[in-house]
From TrEMBL:
Region annotated Disordered, chain positions: 1-22, 124-150
Pfam families: HTH_animal
Superkingdom: Eukaryota
Name of this chain's protein: Hypp1388 protein
Residue ranges the record marks as coiled coil: none
Compositional bias (Basic and acidic residues): 134-146
Alphabetical list of InterPro entries matching this protein: HTH_animal
Domain called Helix-turn-helix: residue spans: 65-118
Length: 183
């Protein structure tokens, strides 16, 4: 996607189309209508202050037909439909009020396809659990990184007669012991 000044669209489009001698790739352009511009599955909406917000875009021919809950597909695939639509909502829609409207639209559409309320709750529960695990893993990685910042390398002489006992004692204090291969 490229935003260009009015009047320069055709010139840019012609230039881009001339770069492919085979003619297999054809560029087109769309102009903003009533402050909106569809792009892939997003709808760019120009607000009164000139800023842009994003919504999920559906063509006028979109039917909201999704995998029917009564079908003989595994449950994880049915829950995946909910998860995918909710992920798109969270990734595309920029304002909280619009996210709420999109979430309601998704629920209505899927309920018409037979999805019970508990499926939405289960997906939300899985999302929260995954987010908690991600936060926990991130904290563990930070702690691990902090713990290794103060590590220094030390050399310890090792002999068969007294080395093993000393190694065990040093290891309990968090030291890493490297034994020479010739011992």
């Amino acid at each position: 996607m490229e935003v260009v000044k009015r009047g320069a669209q055709q010139e840019l489009t012609d230039h881009l189309n001339s770069t492919d001698p085979t003619g297999n790739i054809q560029f087109t352009y769309e102009e903003e209508e009533k402050g909106t511009l569809p792009f892939l599955d997003t709808l760019l909406v120009r607000k009164g202050d000139g800023s842009v917000k994003l919504l999920v875009y559906r063509k006028s021919t979109h039917t909201d037909q999704y995998l029917n809950f009564q079908s003989h597909h595994p449950l994880h695939q049915k829950l995946g439909v909910i998860r995918t639509l909710m992920d798109r909502c969270n990734a595309v829609v920029t304002e909280d009020q619009d996210k709420e409207l999109e979430t309601q639209h998704i629920k209505r559409a899927l309920m018409r396809c037979g999805y019970p309320e508990w499926t939405f709750q289960k997906v939300e529960q899985q999302r929260r659990r995954k987010k908690t695990e991600k936060t926990k893993n991130s904290k563990q990685q930070e702690e691990k990184a902090r713990g290794t910042q103060n590590v220094t390398n030390s050399s310890v002489c090792f002999s068969r007669s007294c080395g093993a006992a000393k190694c065990c004692k040093l290891k309990t204090h968090g030291m890493q012991i490297q034994q020479p291969s010739h011992v």
